[in-house]
UniProtKB/TrEMBL annotation:
Keywords: Lyase, Pyridoxal phosphate. GO terms for biological process: transsulfuration. GO terms for cellular component: cytoplasm. It comes from the Bacteria. InterPro entries: Cys/Met-Metab_PyrdxlP-dep_enz, Cys_met_metab_PP, PyrdxlP-dep_Trfase, PyrdxlP-dep_Trfase_major, PyrdxlP-dep_Trfase_small. Gene3D superfamilies: Aspartate Aminotransferase, domain 1, Type I PLP-dependent aspartate aminotransferase-like (Major domain). This is Cystathionine beta-lyase/cystathionine gamma-synthase. It comes from Dokdonella fugitiva. The lineage of its organism: Bacteria, Pseudomonadati, Pseudomonadota, Gammaproteobacteria, Lysobacterales. Its cofactor is pyridoxal 5'-phosphate.
Length: 388
């Protein structure tokens, strides 16, 4: 299936709605049946039929089919956030007494569901440095049921060898779940590499317009049915039809946005790597990244995330840099049409030490490259670096 078909045709039944090119927003919580037998049929398959919008809504279903096809998965469930999608994937995979192995420094709410929420229900988690596949193997116990991956992660971009981890898990009957938000389905296909479940914060590149919070979870029909009957229907963290419609629209331009972002990011990366006021650049494609070989093998193209460590040990100087940016909006999240800057120091008190025991130093700023011209972004960064 080619990309154009997935994005423009798949799941759309235009003849059923007046030939409308854009799909209708089926803003209905419930769907009525002509007779008892039809209703009985509906209950037999709430995931495939239309009974209640907490289960399956026609507008959301169009999006499900497109995202599943992009990931090379049999099925997909959409959620009201990426955090809900990851949580559902985890909750559907473990029971009290089970053990999980998770990559070190995952997205903060992935850590929270494993450690804080499921920790209260007797699920234990070991966090390991995922850059060495051997660390996963060493952490396995007889109770390990799930391996949680995030490759690359969204701050310092460490990667895991997905095929190697998948093979290791499959041989032992352990399920794998990978957060693929950073790479997008265009640049990395975890399912083709043997991963069981793939999650997205669709808030980021998939929607790409900073106007919807959404999540996706993709996998085999059997696994997705399991998640549907479990956390999906139970927790009810659904994507509303209107937001699904916005996401379908956002998705139409995913390939062209990612192409443009990749080109611009390559230019910005080269500029930052050569700049005397930048101490270090984190990127899967940074010239000093020890995982460049894995990047070559596993990531088809560049995303727009870069983290820089400024050549200063003073938070006040970091603030001067960030406050001096005029084209990068200062905020959380990433993956939109607009360039963003996220200063790590903003989440710490003013007098915090520069190098916290865990994670990145406070002179780090994450950039998300958007659709602006590369020379505009480079000029903005240059001007802000001069304020350091
Ligand atoms: C943002 C993010 C999430 C959570 O997604 P939401 O849509 O904000 O709930 C999960 N994983 C990664 C890598 C993220 O960046």
């Amino acid at each position: 299936m080619d990309l154009g078909y997935i994005l423009n045709q798949l799941g759309e039944e235009r003849e059923r709605y007046f030939g409308a090119v854009a799909p209708p927003i089926v803003q209905s919580s419930i769907f009525a049946f002509p007779n008892v037998e039809a209703m009985r049929e509906g209950f037999r398959d709430e995931l495939g039929e239309h009974v209640y919008t907490r289960g399956n809504n026609p507008t959301v279903e169009i999006l499900r089919r497109k995202v599943a096809a992009l990931e090379g998965a049999e099925d997909c469930l959409m959620f009201g956030s990426g955090a809900a999608a990851m949580s559902a994937g985890v909750i559907a995979s473990v029971a009290g007494g089970d053990h999980v192995v998770c990559v070190a420094r995952p997205y903060s709410w992935t850590r929270a569901v494993l450690k804080d929420l499921l920790g209260r229900f007797g699920v234990s988690t070991t966090f390991v440095d995922g850059t060495d596949t051997g660390n996963f193997e060493a952490a396995l116990t007889t109770r390990t049921r799930l391996i949680v991956l995030e490759s690359p992660n969204s701050m310092t971009f460490e990667q895991q060898d997905l095929a190697a981890v998948a093979a290791l898990a499959r041989a032992r009957g352990i399920r794998t779940l990978c957060d693929n938000s950073h790479a997008t389905p265009l640049n990395q296909s975890p399912i083709a590499l043997g991963i069981d479940l793939v999650a997205h914060s669709a808030t980021k590149y998939l929607n790409g317009h900073s106007d919807v919070v959404a999540g996706a979870l993709c996998g085999s029909s059997a696994l997705i049915r399991d998640v549907f009957r479990g956390p999906y229907m139970t927790l009810g963290a659904i994507l509303a039809p209107h937001d699904a419609w916005l996401m379908i629209r956002g998705l139409r331009t995913l390939p062209i946005r990612m192409q443009r972002i990749a080109t611009t990011t390559t230019t910005v990366l080269a500029f930052l790597e050569g700049h005397p006021r930048v101490r270090r650049v984190y990127s899967p494609r940074a010239s000093d990244n020890p995982q460049l070989g894995l990047t070559e093998r596993q990531l088809a193209g560049a995303s727009g995330l870069l983290t820089i460590e400024l050549a200063t040990d003073e938070v006040a100087a970091v603030e001067r840099f960030c406050d001096g940016l005029t084209r990068f909006l200062m905020t959380v999240s990433w993956g939109g049409y607009e360039s963003l800057a996220f200063p790590v120091c903003a989440v710490f008190p003013r007098d915090a030490p520069l190098r916290p025991p865990q994670g990145v130093p406070l002179n780090a700023v994450r950039l998300s490259i958007g659709l602006e011209d590369a020379d505009v972004l480079v000029a903005d960064l240059e001007a802000a670096l001069q304020r350091l």
